[in-house]
């Protein structure tokens, strides 16, 4: 009986405790930098798009919400002709980010993308592309590896040794 | 008291009571939330008070459905009984000197009779639903009511003996010097426990125990029929609080700087808050624990209380 009264008293004291509620629209919950929210396509330091249209994200996607078509520019460099993410299907698992070899596709801490019209949840490339390098500032895929595409000559990349002249190895 | 005044009191009491019962939706949700370190509904209107309006409108627009397997007329009547019987009990409560609907000289007996009628709504509702969970709830409701009605009445006998009247106005007047909670502490505690059981509030809500019986006797009800059970429960809470205030805490009596009605309302809301605190803090006992607790502990206790009170009253008289 006394324990019941003690319980009631302790519960009553909760009236004066700090409340856990976060009053959402006015007050936002802190999101961590690696929170998996809206998907974006980042750009490299020169402002070019990082995506090389390799389809790995579309393959990795468990709900098949990514659609893209790769094409090549005049330098033979691949880029997506269109890039479409259906966010009404997306489960924000982050597999696309893991699969991306060029750090192009990234998930950012933003979840406020509710829409009245379902069709508005289909994001095209111009909606996805942002003018930022995301989580990997200073990274340019073409400076590290890849085809020569007017960015660097062979052997001039970061941490790259010049190619061996096979003719000098002749006996 | 002339007729116009009387009609005004009747409708005034009815109006205020129904509003209190509806307003308790908000009070309960806010208080429960605060006691669980949340904020509760605070969006619609000042402090979220319009949640009452939203809830009521929602209940009105729900489909009012009678299951095809139910006993139709009994099913429809049952929710009305609980509201009617509880509202009838309010007839005898003196809110302030002169503000009482019917100043019956058998007030307490009338209250006990009406609160016993309330169980019919549970039994009939559970029976007419033709659903095993509803029936189990009704069964529990009936046995809980039988067990707790007995010493609910007996716990008030001490008060009746001390004041020498069944009339609630006279009982309040008899507490002019000393509230009966001081002279009848056992009666108060037992009446409080029986009152919680009477209104099937947590922790004694075993007729509707949602974790065991879905919603018990009102599992099949929807729309405003469920709303009637809902309002009936809040009216019951208000009624038991009003009875506790009247019988043990001096009713409208209080220091003169506030009018009697205000004192009554302050005390009333204190006990309504206590009911909500009980819900927030205590777990539900097992069914057999509840019944054996009632018959084996509370009944002997209250009989002893009647015996001792009677002996002392006789001794003091002469």
From TrEMBL, chain A:
Enzymatic reactions: a quinone + NADH + 5 H(+)(in) = a quinol + NAD(+) + 4 H(+)(out)
Pfam families tied to this protein: Fer4_7 (PF12838)
Organism, as annotated: Niastella caeni
Subcellular location(s) per record: Cell inner membrane; Cell membrane
Free-text function comment from the UniProt entry: NDH-1 shuttles electrons from NADH, via FMN and iron-sulfur (Fe-S) centers, to quinones in the respiratory chain. The immediate electron acceptor for the enzyme in this species is believed to be ubiquinone. Couples the redox reaction to proton translocation (for every two electrons transferred, four hydrogen ions are translocated across the cytoplasmic membrane), and thus conserves the redox energy in a proton gradient.
Keywords: 4Fe-4S, Cell membrane, Iron, Iron-sulfur, Membrane, Metal-binding, NAD, Oxidoreductase, Quinone, Repeat, Translocase, Ubiquinone
Full protein name: NADH-quinone oxidoreductase subunit I
Recorded GO CC terms: plasma membrane
UniProt membrane topology term: Peripheral membrane protein
InterPro entries associated with the record: 4Fe4S_Fe-S-bd, 4Fe4S_Fe_S_CS, NADH_quinone_OxRdtase_chainI
Name of the encoding gene: nuoI
Binding site for [4Fe-4S] cluster 2: 61, 90, 93, 96
First-level EC class: translocase
EC number: 7.1.1.-
UniProt similarity note: Belongs to the complex I 23 kDa subunit family.
Cofactor binding notes: Binds 2 [4Fe-4S] clusters per subunit.
UniProtKB/TrEMBL annotation, chain B:
Molecular function, one GO term: oxidoreductase activity, acting on NAD(P)H, quinone or similar compound as acceptor
EC top class named in words: translocase
Subcellular location: Cell membrane; Membrane
UniProt KW keywords: Cell membrane, Membrane, NAD, Oxidoreductase, Quinone, Translocase, Transmembrane, Transmembrane helix, Ubiquinone
Membrane-crossing segments per the record: 7-27, 73-100, 106-125, 146-166, 178-197, 234-255, 261-282, 294-316
An example Gene Ontology biological process: aerobic respiration
InterPro entries: NADH_UbQ_OxRdtase_su1/FPO, NADH_UbQ_OxRdtase_su1_CS
EC number(s) from the headed UniProt entry: 7.1.1.-
Mode of membrane association: Multi-pass membrane protein
One GO CC term on file: plasma membrane
Catalytic activity: a quinone + NADH + 5 H(+)(in) = a quinol + NAD(+) + 4 H(+)(out)
Similarity comment: Belongs to the complex I subunit 1 family.
Subunit note: NDH-1 is composed of 14 different subunits. Subunits NuoA, H, J, K, L, M, N constitute the membrane sector of the complex.
Role summary: NDH-1 shuttles electrons from NADH, via FMN and iron-sulfur (Fe-S) centers, to quinones in the respiratory chain. The immediate electron acceptor for the enzyme in this species is believed to be ubiquinone. Couples the redox reaction to proton translocation (for every two electrons transferred, four hydrogen ions are translocated across the cytoplasmic membrane), and thus conserves the redox energy in a proton gradient. This subunit may bind ubiquinone.
Name by which UniProt lists this protein: NADH-quinone oxidoreductase subunit H
Lineage per the UniProt record: Bacteria, Pseudomonadati, Bacteroidota, Chitinophagia, Chitinophagales
């Amino acid at each position: 009986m006394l324990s019941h009264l003690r319980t009631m008293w302790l519960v009553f004291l909760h009236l004066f405790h700090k409340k856990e509620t976060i009053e959402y629209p006015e007050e936002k919950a802190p999101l961590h930098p690696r929170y998996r929210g809206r998907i974006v396509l980042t750009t490299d330091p020169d402002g070019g798009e990082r995506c090389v249209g390799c389809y790995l994200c579309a393959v990795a996607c468990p709900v098949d919400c990514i659609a893209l078509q790769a094409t090549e520019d005049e330098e033979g460099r691949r880029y997506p002709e269109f890039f479409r993410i259906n966010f009404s299907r997306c489960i924000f698992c982050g597999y696309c980010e893991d699969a991306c070899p060029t750090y192009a596709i990234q998930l950012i801490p933003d979840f406020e993308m509710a829409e009245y019209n379902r069709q508005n949840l289909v994001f095209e490339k111009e909606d996805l592309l942002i003018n930022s390098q995301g989580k990997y500032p200073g990274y340019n895929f073409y400076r590290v590896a890849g085809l020569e595409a007017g960015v660097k000559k062979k052997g001039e990349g970061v941490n790259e040794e010049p190619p061996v002249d096979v003719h000098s190895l002749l006996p | 008291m002339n007729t116009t005044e009387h009609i005004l009191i009747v409708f005034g009491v009815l109006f205020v009571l129904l509003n209190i019962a509806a307003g308790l939706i908000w009070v309960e949700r806010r208080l429960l939330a605060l006691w669980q370190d949340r904020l509760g509904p605070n969006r619609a209107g000042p402090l979220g008070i319009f949640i009452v309006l939203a809830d009521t409108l929602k209940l009105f627009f729900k489909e009012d459905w009678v299951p095809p397997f139910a006993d139709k007329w009994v099913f429809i009547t049952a929710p009305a009984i609980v509201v009617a019987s509880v509202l009838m009990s309010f007839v005898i409560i003196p809110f302030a000197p002169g503000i009482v609907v019917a100043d019956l000289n058998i007030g307490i007996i009338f209250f006990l009779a009406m609160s016993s009628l309330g169980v019919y709504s549970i039994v009939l509702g559970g029976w007419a639903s033709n659903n095993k969970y509803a029936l189990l709830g009704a069964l529990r409701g009936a046995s809980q009511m039988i067990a707790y009605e007995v010493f609910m009445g007996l716990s008030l006998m001490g008060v009746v003996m001390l004041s020498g009247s069944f009339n609630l106005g006279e009982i309040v007047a008899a507490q002019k010097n000393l509230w009966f909670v001081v002279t009848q502490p056992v009666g108060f505690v037992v009446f409080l426990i029986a009152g919680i059981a009477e209104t099937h509030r947590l922790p004694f809500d075993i007729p509707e125990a949602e974790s065991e019986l879905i919603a018990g006797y009102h599992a099949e009800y929807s729309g405003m029929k469920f709303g009637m059970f809902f309002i009936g429960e809040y009216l019951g809470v208000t009624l038991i609080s009003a009875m506790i205030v009247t019988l043990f805490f001096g009713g409208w009596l209080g220091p003169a700087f506030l009018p009697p009605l205000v004192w009554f309302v302050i005390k009333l809301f204190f006990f309504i808050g206590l009911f909500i605190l009980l819900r927030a803090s205590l777990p539900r006992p097992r069914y057999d624990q509840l019944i054996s607790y009632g018959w084996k502990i509370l009944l002997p206790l209250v009989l002893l209380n009647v015996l001792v009170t009677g002996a002392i009253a006789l001794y003091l008289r002469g």
